[in-house]
Amino acid sequence: MAQQLKGKVISNKMINTVVVEVLRLKKHPRYGKYIKISDNYKAHTNENIPIGSTVVIELTRPISKDKRWKVVFVEKRVVAKEPVLEDNISV
């Protein structure tokens, strides 16, 4: 089984690619406090995944210069919000 990570989709503007932010906790060497560290990974996908969805990505062969991950499945899909058009009615 290949390495798998869970993260949140922060961008889906590229074709067949999403950017996934993976959070992890790292212990500070001197003070012992845990610090949130985030890494961004470009992952290959064939479906349109909305921003904010939680996905699981898996390490795979190099697909392009930056893509070495693929989306295995969508754990929690967020409903994409449609832009609200407001009528500018002045009284």
Description:
The chain is mainly beta and 91 residues long. Helices cover 0% and strands 52% of the residues. The protein contains no helices and five strands. The protein has strands at 4-14, 17-27, 34-44, 54-59, 69-76. A five-stranded mixed β-barrel has the order 1-2-3-5-4. The protein is flat.
Q: Give the overall shape, derived from the CA principal axes.
A: flat
How confident is the prediction overall: mean pLDDT? 91
Question: What is the count of DSSP helices, taking H or I runs of 4+ residues?
Answer: 0
| Strand coverage percent | over 45%
Helicity level: under 10%
* Category by helix and strand content: mainly beta
What's this model, at a glance?
With about 90 residues, the protein is mostly beta strands.
List the topology elements.
Elements: E1 4-14, E2 17-27, E3 34-44, E4 54-59, E5 69-76
Annotation keywords:
91 residues, five-stranded mixed beta barrel, mainly beta
